[in-house]
Specification:
- The protein is of the alpha/beta class.
- It has one domain (5-240): LmbE-like (Rossmann fold).
- The protein has six helices and eight strands, in the order E-E-H-E-H-E-H-E-H-E-E-H-H-E.
- An eight-stranded mixed beta sheet has the order 1-7-8-6-5-2-3-4, sandwiched between helices.
- Helix 2 links the parallel strand 3 and strand 4.
- Helix 2 runs antiparallel to helix 5 (185-192) and helix 3 crosses helix 4.
- The protein starts with a strand and ends with a strand.
- The mean pLDDT is 95.
Length: 243
């Protein structure tokens, strides 16, 4: 573990890019809560509408998508309080996200407009990742940074180019950076539990007993990630600073 970095200095602002509502809270909720408590403005960008996030084959998917936006805004508020920044939605259909030039331009524009010091996203190169939205959202975060930083990409954008200082990829195939989130586990859980539409499906928490089990699984996962680093709870990432 000697080659791992640990605990970045709190940035002035951060942009977390998730494929679906709730992905950010799962991937880096503890870290965002920690940074917000230290003054960082925390922005969210959600790429899809989350309209397939139910086991109910007869669900009103339009209503579900609207509900999930409300849940994401509440999760952002729970994570960051008065340091919660913007929550933006690209509204691609759940399961149909693609990392094409048009989507890349939209992500680059958000980065240029919000001008985050740090961007966080899915690791698009994680082996055996099944969900295409996670893979494409990760590529859009990486490629969006390249497009946002260079002035000759998307010259039609009405704002200047912007180069973030660092990129953190969660669920990384080869993580090399750890963040101590022990004091922020309860906030991470509270933000996850704002996504009530996902209790039955993603979280398998349809009743109080199952919800307690979900909380235990999250806490156990954070403990397992922290143990090699002497931490009681951690989130780990691939850190890329040469942007």
């Amino acid at each position: 573990m000697t080659d791992w970095s640990r605990d970045l200095a709190t940035p002035s602002s951060a942009l977390a890019i998730g494929a679906h509502p709730d992905d950010v809270e799962f991937g880096c909720g503890g870290l965002l809560a920690k940074w917000a408590a230290d003054g960082c403005t925390v922005h969210h960008l959600v790429c899809t509408d989350g309209s397939k996030g139910t086991w109910d084959a007869d669900a009103d998917v339009v209503a579900l998508a609207a509900r999930r936006q409300d849940e994401q805004r509440e999760a952002a508020r729970r994570l960051a309080g008065d340091r919660a920044g913007e929550v933006r939605f690209l509204e691609y259909v759940d399961g149909e996200l693609d990392s094409d030039l048009s989507a890349r331009g939209r992500v680059a524009l958000v980065i240029r407009e919000l001008r985050p010091s740090v961007v966080l996203g899915h690791d698009p190169w994680k082996r055996y990742r099944l969900h295409p939205d996670h893979r494409h959202a990760g590529l859009l975060a990486c490629e969006g940074i390249v497009a946002a930083r260079d002035p000759h990409f998307y010259r039609e954008h009405p704002v200047a180019h912007h180069r973030p200082d660092a990129l953190l990829l969660w669920e990384a195939d080869e993580p090399d950076h750890v963040e101590d989130v022990n004091d922020f586990v309860d906030i991470k859980l509270a933000a996850l539990e704002a996504h009530e539409s996902q209790f039955e499906s993603t979280m398998k928490a349809a009743d109080d007993t199952q919800l307690a089990g979900f909380r235990d699984r999250v806490i156990t996962r954070l403990r397992v990630l922290g143990e090699p680093h002497g931490l009681r709870a951690a989130e780990v990432f691939k850190l890329i600073e040469s942007l």
